[in-house]
Amino acid sequence: MARRPPTKPRKFASQERSRATVDALVEATARILVKEGFDKASTNRIAEVAGVSVGSLYQYFPSKEALVAVVIERHQQEIMQTVRGELAEVLVQPVEKAIRKLVAIALRAHRVDPKLHRVLAEQIPRVGELEKLETFNRDNYTIFRTYLESHRDELRVGDLELASFVCVTSIEALTHNAVLHHSKMISDERLEALIDEATRLVTGYLKG
Amino acid sequence: MARRPPTKPRKFASQERSRATVDALVEATARILVKEGFDKASTNRIAEVAGVSVGSLYQYFPSKEALVAVVIERHQQEIMQTVRGELAEVLVQPVEKAIRKLVAIALRAHRVDPKLHRVLAEQIPRVGELEKLETFNRDNYTIFRTYLESHRDELRVGDLELASFVCVTSIEALTHNAVLHHSKMISDERLEALIDEATRLVTGYLKG
DNA sequence: ACAGAATATGAGCGATCATTCGCTTTCGAT
DNA sequence: ATCGAAAGCGAATGATCGCTCATATTCTGT
Fold this sequence. Notes:
2 copies of one chain form a homodimer.
Chain A: H1 16-36, H2 43-50, H3 54-60, H4 64-90, H5 95-110, H6 114-122, H7 132-150, H8 160-181, H9 188-207
Chain B binds a DNA duplex through helix 1, helix 2 and helix 3.
């Protein structure tokens, strides 16, 4: 197993000990990002918080960027796990139900480790490897556009592309801001109110 | 004039030459932010692009943060100059007209040096002096809330606070994304279409 | 023409950062 | 018990950064 030259290989973990190291590094990175922000997340500090040495970090991650990218991926996967099942249901429901469920899903997505979500959204530079954040958003857009196409006859929209843009942007911004900038709004009661309002906003727009 | 000890004073520019230096520094900072991003904007590089020495930079700005803060202020003032007159008109107009004008204003605001706006919105760390960005947004929110209060009877809204949040967030996100992430949409024709859609979205929501 | 204030200079300081590499320790297979 | 591979270590490197200061140049009032 692992036939690569041992001097270079920045490679995968085969023993359990090393898997624990990788895990500790990813977790430490996330914790530092949340508690101290992106620019305090130096590789030396990450290794220190993870309880390993910098050298070990570079055994498994070719760069700091790669490590942050893994943190992003893990966060997106956690969101997807919370959401994938519900997302399938949406596609076969009528507009009003679908939008309401979509808003609820978006809200729940933003409540998975909100502080990490905020740092990723606001502080991570979108260069090189770290553009995955943009890609993730484009996926949502495509899914929504597909839904609108298959329910075209129930809607009063001229330009599907434009309508998708309006809806996705609004829902994303509302849920993002509600969770990350107005966390007082998080009482379950007010949260239901927000779902009502966002649903009314979007369905009203789609059904004329 | 200027009685401070000459060893410390990090002070104002009284001669024309120094005013030009300050201007060159601010402009160079903006240009670097746009063309190379926030983390390439080192003080040495800023001074180099401005055609002055680092020392001169620190004669007029106590820190890099202060310099960036001035760039932010200047950008916000440029936006306000483009917008202030129109904003006054909005307050005395009926809902539909008002919203349409507000959307158009927001759009125009985002088209004042859009690339700089994007960098300021997405790359500048919101710490210390640089929180002005948040304050600016809170102002918009307050203005809108005031408008809704004075037109309460024309509206079908329960919670004014919540409605303001929904409207401001949506308009801001739509105009921001349209200008900064979908610049293909900028053809004047599609731009009018976006104003139509955003207006329909928000007025539909407010008037039930 | 001269003095002192204002302005400009840029080498360099100390801190911090991402990354490397020679070395040691632990593991798994025999 | 042994040995090679895997995992771990951390001082050291070189780059870059924000910022200072001793010095030089230019301006302004007289």
